[in-house]
Request: fold
Amino acid sequence: MTTKEKIAYRLEKLKKSGFEIVDGQPDITGWNVKSRSGKKVGEVDDLLFDPHNRKVRYLILDLDDNELGIAEDRKVLIPIGIAEMYTKSDRYEHSADPAFAAYDPANDGNVVFLPTVSAEQLDMLPLFEEGRLSHHIEMAIRKILEPRSETAYDEDEFYRHEHFNDDRFYHRH
Reply:
């Protein structure tokens, strides 16, 4: 990738991009997001994706109506590999999964869980502002969600981190 391509490259919101969710995959926008304890964290507002690689990199999480005492009037980014998707059809398939204990298909419907993210980490995440995502902000998100991370930002390697492994989101370990 040339320097010019790196400069021109950026992530886009799915809703405004002209791209669509792959056939057979659910559109998770509007789904509730819950903590491991089952408390509401917020709602998936949109997806931030890499149009070049056609990969979702972040969930845009709207913290409105959360049950964690976090300031509600903001949106934050959650790397796709940190979240886990559960649907009503997952009830029996994942019943042994510890995160599943907080999931009640009858009441919760389709949800996204954040099994490893604390309320404190969510509260520290920077505000998402469309068109203002920089390498500095992405590194800040990584350091909040993985405090022991000392990795410098390497554009060619950054999205190879487990935080962006969408197999984890879809339970394809």
Notes: The helical segments are 3-8, 105-108, 119-124, 135-145, 166-169. The first strand starts at residue 12 and ends at 13. The beta strands are 12-13, 32-35, 40-50, 55-62, 75-79, 84-86, 111-114.
